[in-house]
Specification:
about 260 residues; two-stranded antiparallel ribbon; mainly alpha
């Protein structure tokens, strides 16, 4: 990541390419930040404070579609066909380099759509108060910090969309981070999905809306990484198989003594 930043700070001549890289990067990071903030705020209120106003009984159907569109789009874009589509989405010769940034941009828009256009049911089952409120808020905040740590360990430049536009700015081929095995990835193979699942269940307000979201996306967090691991198995072969044999999927194991170095 540091080498990518240093190279991007000294881009060779090419005003059109530089403008494209900086413009796409700015829009992507703005929408990425907005999507994350919308998610944090909406779930903090148990999905009871969104902007959607679809009348019942259609509201639940629309809300289900909002839930489904994110994992479906995510999985499609991570496929081979989706990768080719991402490379062609930006017209001209730079679409391939910007593919990872385009992916993050689309994912950010999907998050914004989900968490701002949700139609609240208006039903609140439980709301933390007093000391319990502050305890739950602390756990909710820790869950988000855990998610941020897992994202950093996985390669922040890829997760945030910076890899594509910074590579274009520096006029170099995008170089994806190696298979993550350090940090939280030493404890479990899927810390991002586990941390995200924790954010779903540690909110201070509980509604039918939040329960639907939590159940749906927890199932996604448990099942979707199987597809990711298939891709890793094809890409890294025996190295990933050793890692998979040594590190649990989602629940850390209690270790005794010193373990083997699984990722060599």
């Amino acid at each position: 990541m540091l080498q990518l930043i240093k190279a991007a700070l000294r881009p060779p001549a090419g005003p059109g390419r530089i403008s494209l890289a900086l413009g796409v990067g700015a829009v992507t990071h703005l929408l990425f930040t907005a999507g994350v903030l919308a998610m944090i705020i909406a779930m903090f209120h148990g999905m009871s404070a969104s902007l959607g106003r679809v009348p019942q009984p259609w509201a639940w159907m629309v809300n289900l579609l909002l839930i489904i569109q994110f994992p479906l789009g995510h999985s499609l874009l991570l496929s081979r066909r989706g990768g080719r589509w991402l490379s062609r989405l930006v017209p001209g010769p730079h679409g391939g380099k910007l593919a990872s940034t385009t992916f993050a941009l689309i994912a950010s828009i999907q998050l914004l759509i989900l968490f701002t256009l949700w139609t609240p049911s208006g039903i609140i089952w439980w709301q933390a108060e007093g000391a319990v409120f502050w305890v739950v808020c602390g756990v909710y905040g820790l869950s988000w910090l855990l998610l941020m740590k897992a994202t950093f360990d996985a390669g922040l430049e890829v997760q945030s969309g910076a890899l594509g536009w910074m590579s274009l700015l520096a006029r170099i081929t995008p170089r994806f981070p190696d298979m993550p095995t350090e940090g939280l990835f030493r404890l479990i193979r899927q810390p991002i999905y586990v941390a995200f699942a924790l954010t779903l269940w540690t909110v201070p307000v509980w509604t039918p809306d939040q329960l639907l979201l939590a159940v749906s996306y927890t199932a996604y967090c448990l099942l979707a990484p199987r597809l990711k691991e298939r891709r890793f198995s094809k890409r890294y072969g025996e190295r990933f198989e050793r890692y998979r044999a040594a590190v649990p999927y989602a629940i850390p194991a209690i270790r005794t003594g010193s373990g083997d170095k699984h990722a060599e």
